[in-house]
Each structure stands twice: as C-alpha cells, then as structure tokens.
Design goal:
Layout (H helix, E strand, L loop, with lengths): L2 H18 L5 H5 L6 E7 L6 E7 L1 E3 L2 E6 L6 H8 L2 E6 L2 E9 L3 H14 L1 H8 L8 E10 L2
Length: 147
C-alpha cells in the first residue's frame, strides 16, 4: 500500500472514530422522548453486579429524569446513591451517565409536573392523592453514548 493510500485509510478511520464518540445532543434525546420507558442499569451496592430496571422517564433538554417510589427505598435507587454511574437504554440509544438524587423542592415539583404532563396515570393518581408519579426524583446527566 502506498503512503497516500495508508494516509487515506488512516483519515477515514479517524473520521469514523470521531463519529462513534460524537457527544450526545438534545436532538438525540428529543428523537426518543416519546418512548414510555427506559432501562436503567445500576451496580448493586453489595454485590457490584449489574442490575437493570425498566421505569418511566422524562426528558428536559439534554437531561433525563426518573423517579423512585417507596420514598427511595427501591433497590435501584439505593444502588445509584451508593454508585452514581449508570447505563441507560432508551429507544436505540445506549448511554452512560451520572445519577444524582434531587433534594430541591422546587426542582422536584417541576419534574413531577413533567411526569404528570407525559403520563396520564401520574396525573390521575395526583388528583386522587396517590403517590404514583410523585416519587424521589433522580437526575441523570453527563450522558454520553456507550461505544
């Protein structure tokens, strides 16, 4: 192979690699926000083994929010408190991110409203006083594609 051909092959490889690690955009998330659930994978707080759960989510710009029922006593919530690195599968996207419980009352209320707008069940339960759709809010940000 000539020097020019090798340079061309190397250039194409660099372009392909750059595309594969392209940062996630709000447009990427907007394309899958209609999905009703995502799969959230955490690391078990005692075993370190991967644990996956399918849950509701909402998108706000380049962020994803989920919420835990049972006042944060679900296993997945306690796992991410211990180890905030998570993997999210949403539509055709597989993303790595950082999960952080939200304690701010105003932010929590805003996210609960996003859930009520997206999910009829959350809205109905809110009307009748149920806690469904009003759990502990978790922000997942720092999202980047898993290669």
């Amino acid at each position: 192979m000539t020097v020019t051909a090798r340079a061309l092959v190397a250039g194409v490889a660099l372009l392909l690699a750059a595309e594969a690690v392209r940062p996630l955009s709000a447009d990427d998330l907007r394309a899958v926000e209609h999905e009703s659930t995502l799969q959230l994978t955490t690391s078990g707080r005692r075993t370190g083994q991967s644990r996956a759960v399918t849950i509701w989510f909402v998108r706000d710009r380049d962020r994803i929010y989920v919420q835990s029922g049972k006042e944060g006593q679900t296993d997945w919530y306690r796992n991410l408190v211990q180890n905030p690195s998570v993997v999210v599968q949403l539509g055709g996207l597989k993303l790595r991110g950082h999960a952080r419980p939200i304690d701010d009352a105003a932010e929590t209320a805003r996210v609960h409203e996003l859930f009520s707008q997206k999910y009829l069940s959350a809205r109905v339960m809110g009307w009748v006083g149920g806690g469904f759709g009003h759990g502990k809010v978790v922000l997942i940000d720092g999202l980047e594609p898993v290669t």
